[in-house]
TrEMBL record:
<feature type="transmembrane region" description="Helical">
    <location>
        <begin position="148"/>
        <end position="169"/>
    </location>
</feature>
<keyword id="KW-0472">Membrane</keyword>
<feature type="transmembrane region" description="Helical">
    <location>
        <begin position="175"/>
        <end position="195"/>
    </location>
</feature>
<keyword id="KW-0812">Transmembrane</keyword>
<feature type="transmembrane region" description="Helical">
    <location>
        <begin position="85"/>
        <end position="108"/>
    </location>
</feature>
<keyword id="KW-1133">Transmembrane helix</keyword>
<feature type="transmembrane region" description="Helical">
    <location>
        <begin position="236"/>
        <end position="259"/>
    </location>
</feature>
<protein>
    <recommendedName>
        <fullName>Integral membrane protein</fullName>
    </recommendedName>
</protein>
<feature type="transmembrane region" description="Helical">
    <location>
        <begin position="24"/>
        <end position="44"/>
    </location>
</feature>
Length: 265
């Protein structure tokens, strides 16, 4: 474990904590506030175990529904893998996958290391901790499983796509319905896929370990596409985080009777 960091004897002897004169604290503070707001909202919704289905919409926090105690849903995957012994909210059974995906994401790691642990607070601002072991030890070494969360995130995004397709049916199983909720779900699923494909692990899976791109033209094209998304990974991380919360909130409002879903046709 290395110690000292910017205060070690090998570094320039500058007494000031840092030499930045701009409002460097604004970005980590805003990041921490945004993440905290999402954590509070999603925790409330995940444990509430109610108002997550308003035909034809299923909250993305509760899909697929894997427990016997799920609300009866005519739309959306409802697989009762967990029997009557499961008494908690069914959202807790599925949220582990998107949560793990985001928690181990390269961007979110940077965001919460800076926002919550000040490690470091910002570029060229010394961190307050005396010791630094990076991600070489437990528990942070577990961040290496991000690739496997990516594998889990893909089928979850596939199921949310299925839910979005079913949002084009009305309560009587007839196709051709489109409400405001359908649009909310469409925007959300596009952003979810864009975020998922922009993942650094995805980029490596698609284009990594190749010696000659010229011999793998399909993978090369896919890698270029993923690379373009990857350059926007931070923006997509935030946009999809907001959109998934909004999609859930929309279902909550309709399911709890605050308003009826405006229908276009
Ligand atoms: Fe962010 Fe994989 S690096 S989702």
């Amino acid at each position: 474990m290395k110690s000292g960091g910017v205060r070690s004897g090998t570094r320039a002897a500058i007494t000031a904590a840092h030499l930045r004169t701009d409002r460097w604290w604004l970005a980590p503070a805003a990041t921490a506030a945004g993440l905290l707001a999402f954590v509070v909202y999603s925790t409330w919704r995940a444990f509430s175990n109610s108002d997550y289905y308003a035909a034809p919409y299923v909250s993305p926090f509760y899909s697929p529904c894997l427990a016997e105690n799920c609300e009866p849903m005519r739309n959306g995957p409802n697989w009762e893998i967990f029997g009557s012994w499961w008494g908690l909210s069914p959202a807790l059974l599925v949220l582990i996958f998107p949560l793990g995906f985001r928690l181990t994401c390269y961007y979110y790691r940077k965001a919460y290391y800076r926002g919550f642990w000040a490690s470091p607070p910002a570029c060229a601002v010394a961190e307050p901790h005396k010791k630094y072991s990076g991600e070489t030890r437990f528990p942070l070494i577990l961040q290496n499983i991000h690739r496997y969360f990516f594998y889990a995130a893909v089928p979850v995004a596939g199921i949310l796509t299925y839910d979005t397709v079913l949002a084009f049916r009305n309560e009587d199983y007839e196709w051709g319905h489109m409400g405001l909720g359908t649009l909310v779900f469409l925007v959300n699923i596009v952003l979810i896929w864009a975020y998922t494909f922009s993942c650094h692990s995805c980029r490596h899976i698609v284009g990594g370990k190749l010696k000659h791109f010229s011999k793998h033209p399909v993978r090369y094209r896919a890698w270029r596409l993923v690379g373009r998304l990857n350059a926007r990974h931070m923006q997509l991380a935030w946009a999809s985080l907001v959109s998934v919360a909004l999609a859930d909130f929309y279902v909550y409002l309709v399911a709890s009777g605050v308003f009826d879903d405006p229908t276009f046709f």
